[in-house]
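call fold(seq) -> tokens
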Amino acid sequence: MPANKGKKTGVAAGSDTRERILAATLSLFNQKGPEAVTTAEIAKSVHINQGNLYYHFRTKESLVLALFSRFEADALALVGEADAVEGMDSKAYAGFLRKWFSLVWTHRFLFRDIPGLLAIAPGLRAPILMVSAGMRLSVDVIFQRMEDAGLIRVAADERKPLMTNMWIVSTYFAVYLGLQEGVRDLTPKHVHWGLGQVASLLRPYLSAQAKADLDEMLSEPFA
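ret:
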């Protein structure tokens, strides 16, 4: 029997370790915030030494950037789902909004701790701006498809301000809660509140059916 049968190769083992590091880092960052988490703590949670951690990620910035890349991939996949929506399926568009906030919840440290993150990982600024531009462009396309289907009506001069305000609220609501309300530990209830704030911006422009589907989506507790 080959000596390596049943054992992972060096590449596979390294990939597995890398995945475990990222999963542990995401959990710790979400719980405590990136500034409060040390590389020693990350290594301990994965049951490896710091030298092994540094082999995969030489700095905390590299960990932040790797996690942001995962968020970016998830965001692009979500846009792909929205692009597949056809016709007057307003439930699907409401679901897209909810899935965005599910994504925010999964990667909540990116939204809650953005000021401190940029201090730890200045290289994060450019990817954030790129993803922001891409998402806003995608939302503009979604708006147009909804308008073509009669699900929304927004005057030409109101469209850009509406999308900008929706992006501001959906991206920075966690920072607002931290600064204005003293919320440090985000819960699903807080994320549902952010979802409701974005929905309130959108609701006046929706058709009766789209509004009903939006409200039905909001009636479900966020988890």
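Residues 156-181 form the longest helix (26 residues).
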